[in-house]
Amino acid sequence: MNKQRGPSDLVKIILFILTLGGWYLYYRWQQHQLDKAELISLLPEIEKATAEFGPHFSGNKYFAHYDYLQLRFRHALLLSKIPKKYNNYNLSDQEFKTIDRFAGLHQGITKYRSDYNREFTNSEIVGYKSFFSKLEKYPLSLEQMHAVVSEEDNSLVIAGAGTGKTTTISAKIAYLLDKKLARPQELLVISFTNAAVEEMFERTLRFCGKDSGVEQATFRTFNSFGNQVVRYCNPHPKQIAFEGKDYKVKAFLQQSFDSLFKTDEDFQSKAISFLAFFNRPVKDQFEFNSAAEFKNHQQSQRCISLSGVEVKSMEELQIANFLYLHQVDFEYESRFPLEREDRNPDFGNYAPDFYLPGYDIYHEHYGIDRNGDVPNWFSAKPPFKTAREYYHHGMAWKQHIHEKYGTRLIKTYSYQSSDGSMLLSLKKQLSALGVMLRKRHPDEIIARLKKTENFEGFIGLIYTFLNLMKSSGMMPGGLRIEGMEQRFYVFLDVFTPLFNRYEQKLKDTSCIDFNDMVNHAASYIKNGKYPKAYKYILVDEFQDMSQGRYAMLDALKKANPSAKLYAVGDDWQSVYRFNGSDVSIISRFSDYFGVTAHNQILQTYRFNTEILQVSSTFIQKNPAQLRKKLSSPFDADIPAFGLIPVDLGRMKKAEIDLYLFDRINQILSGIARNAPNSCVFLIGR
C-alpha cells in the first residue's frame, strides 16, 4: 500500500511556491526600479531630442518628410530605449510629460506635419502675396501660389491646358532664390523641347532679374542633360546616330526594309503577311454593338485591297489580298445571273462576295461564329423571329441557288479569321478546285505596297515601337509572351530584323541614339560617377515622362537624397507616347517617387466653358486619366462647336477630296460672311 502524503508535505510545496513567487516579484520590482532609473537618466537626452523638432515647427520653413526621416534616424536608438508602457513607471508629472511629448511627436508626426504645413502654406502665401503679384502682368492665382510654396520631398502639380504651367515653374524658382532655399547652381530645370526650355529660362530670368545669378542654374532638355552627364563621365563619348534627326532614322529603316525585302525570303514572307493581313487590328463584326457603329468604323477605316478594290471588312480585305498575292483575278460583289423565277425579294439582287472569272467560282464569306450565331446588331425580317434564323435562311438560299445552277461555291467564316484558319481553309478549297496559286514577284508587291495609304504609317509604326522599346530598356526577345494577339507576333517577326540592322548600324558607326544616351546617363549617375549635387530638380511637361527618363530622375534622387523633385504636368496632354512616354508615371506619381504633395491648377484661360466641358468629358472617358474639374472665366457667347456630318459612302479617293474641299469651302464662306476678320486654323489627320 502506498504511503499517503501528509499535510506537512503540502505545506512545504505551498511555502516553496510562495517563496519562489515572492522572489520573482522582488526581482520584477527591482528590475522595474532599474528600468525607471535608466528611463529617468534619458530625460536630458529626450529633452534635447524634443528640442530638435523646434526648428521644423518654427513657422519659417516647410516641414518635409525627408526632414522627419533625418530626425527619426538620429532618434532611433533613443526611441528603442523607451519602454512602450512608460506610463507604468510611476513617473512624476514633469517626467511623464517630457517622455510623452517626445514619443507623441514621433507617433503622431503625420498629423502634426500635415496641420503645421497647412498653416505654414497659408501664412507663406500671405507673406509672399506681394512678391507673387509682381512677377507677371497678372498676379498668380491662389492655386498657383499654393503650388509654388509647397516644399515636400516630391511635389506634383497637375495643371490643365492654359492654366500657366511655365509661369508656375518660373515662379517656383524665383521663390526658392528669394527665400534662399537654394543657390542657382543647385537648381536643375528640365523640359522636353528646346523651345520649352528657352521659354522657361527667359521667363525665369524676367521673374528673378539679371542680378539673381539664375543664369548659373542648369536649364536643359532631357536629351541635353543626358548628353551633359555622358560627356562628363566619358572623356570620349559616342556621337548621336543619324545626327539626332528623326527623318534620317526613318529613312534608314525604309532602306533597311527595302534591302531585306529583296534579299531575305523569310523577311519578305513575314513582311507581306503583316502588311497584307495584319497592318490594322482586325475587328470582327461581333465586336460592334450596333449597325451604326459598324458603319462608322467602315467609313473611318476604309478597307482598300492591294488590287485597289474597296471591300467592307478586314476579313474580306484579307481574302482580297490573298487572291491578289497569288495572282487570282476576282470581282467583288458582282451580280449573280439569276433567272426571274429565282429572284428572292428578301435578298434583292444576289451579289456573292467574290467571283473568280477565270475559274467560274463563287466565294461567300459568312459572318457567323463557331456556334452559328450572328452578331447581336444583325437584324431580322418577317417572318423570321431572330437575326440568326434570317441569316441562316439566306445561307441556305444561296447554297440552293448554286446547286440549282451547277456553279461552284467556296465558303469561309468569321470564326476562321478569329482562330487564324481562314486563309488556310481558303487555300485548300481553291487548290481542290484547280485554282492556280502563283506568288507575285516581290518587286511588284513592294511597288504596290508603297502605293497604299498605310505603308508610310508602317515605317512610322516601326520607328515608334523602336523608341518605346528602347526607352523601356527592353529587347525584342523579351516581348514574346504568351497570350498576345497573333498580329503582335507577326509584327515582331518584321520588327526584329529591322531592329537588329538599326543596332548594327549604331555599332558600326560607334554611335548611340537618344534612348541609349539617357540610359547611359542613368547608369553613370546610379554608379556615382556624376558628382554634381542638386537641391531641387524641377521638371516641366512631366506627363511625357518615359521609363528611361524616369530611371535617370530616380538615379538623381538617390544620388541626392535631400533633393526635392518638383514636377508640373497634365496627363490629359501627354503627346510623346510615340517617343516612349508612359502616362502611368504621372498618374501613379507617389508609387514611383514616394511621399508627395499634390496640387492642382484648374482655372484655364485658353478656351471657354463649352469647349472645356466637351473636351473634359471626352478625355475622362479614359479610366487611366486623372480625374479633375477645370474651370474657365469665359462663357461661350455663340456655339463653340459645329459638327458637320458627311457621308462618303463608297466614293473613290479623288471624289472624296473634291467633296471635302467643297464642304470646307462652304464652311469658310459662312465664317467670312459672319466674322470677316476671323483667323482660321485648319488641321487634319
UniProtKB/TrEMBL annotation:
Residues 138-608 form the UvrD-like helicase ATP-binding domain. The keyword ATP-binding applies. GO terms for molecular function: 3'-5' DNA helicase activity; ATP binding; DNA binding; hydrolase activity. ATP binds at residues 159-166. One of its GO terms (biological process) is recombinational repair. GO terms for cellular component: cytosol. The keyword ATP-binding applies. Keywords: ATP-binding, Helicase, Hydrolase, Membrane, Nucleotide-binding, Transmembrane, Transmembrane helix. The chain crosses the membrane at residues 9-27. This is UvrD-like helicase ATP-binding domain-containing protein. InterPro entries: DNA_helicase_UvrD/REP (IPR000212), P-loop_NTPase (IPR027417), UvrD-like_ATP-bd (IPR014016). It holds the Pfam family UvrD-helicase.
